[in-house]
Sequence to fold (328 residues):
Amino acid sequence: MEFVQAEALQNYWYPVAEIEDVRPGPLAVTLLGSQYVVWQSDDGRVTAAPDRCPHREAPLSIGYVDDSGLVCAYHGWAFGTEGRCVDVPSSGEGAAIPPAAHLPCVNVEEKYGLVWLCPGEPVGSVPAVAQDSDPAFRRINTGVDVWKVAATRMVDNFLDISHFPWVHTGTFGDGLATEVPLINLEQLDDDFFGYAYEVDVNNPDEANIISGSEEALVHRWMSTGYALPLITRSTIRYDDGLEHILLLCSTPIDNVTSYFTFVVWRNDDHSVDAEETIAFDRAIGAEDKVMLERVPGSLALGQTDMASVQSDKPSVEWRRRFLALVES
Ligand code: FES
Ligand SMILES: [Fe+2]
Fold:
């Protein structure tokens, strides 16, 4: 079975777009192999439903949004609050609307500048990032990219620090120590499980903006962790107290393609423009993407399917828990 078909995965939240992308929409997205339409109505409410008109199955995402709601491009049926069909132009004013004309909407949540969908019954909330409500921090959104990579491979990579000196040679990793110290896994906070570590990384000129330092090497106090099924987070703290939090989101479009977006929170003085601040992180992400797009297929999930060593402990543990979820 392909992991995207696992019923249990339907019950979690996945970011599929930035809020700006669905204003007013409609926007077509694909999540776990199913197509959805997402739009924002005049009252500000964001709605998501299968991208299929209940009338003759036209994709609703090729329609438009007006003050009545989402209008289908084929025969003009209009869908308002909670996907209720409010107009069937061919039937004329006041005619009864068949119950099957209403859209079977899915759960939507707006958080961290992103639109999150949960097609099933949510078993929890969108993972909490405490810095989002801390006024000392600003949030920077980075857009949503499509990677031709299984979301499982992305999580495996984001939990792995042993690839830094190999893959990130163009950014922060060139010449870094290759040996990974002993990793102790722990609950990092309510939602994230992972590990804390310290590392000295290269601080080239283009990284000075994010590290706040001009030294050639900077010390970072870091943590890396995950919230099941597929959200990961890296936290970075520099010696001077500057913090840089990265929420790395891998949303399965299908078994081997994913939306990738990351969100940054920083307690800096806002003196540097947001886009400039995240340029270095973008370059780091591009290095991961180049490597991962060359690794075919989705990640084998069995514990003995691949050779693993001490530095793989976080991703092995994530994979064990992810597999248990997929099989539940
Ligand atoms: S297919 Fe949408 S209104 Fe007919
Ligand atoms: Fe990486």
Q: What stands out?
A: The first helix runs from residue 151 to 158. Helices lie at 151-158, 164-167, 208-211, 274-292, 313-326.
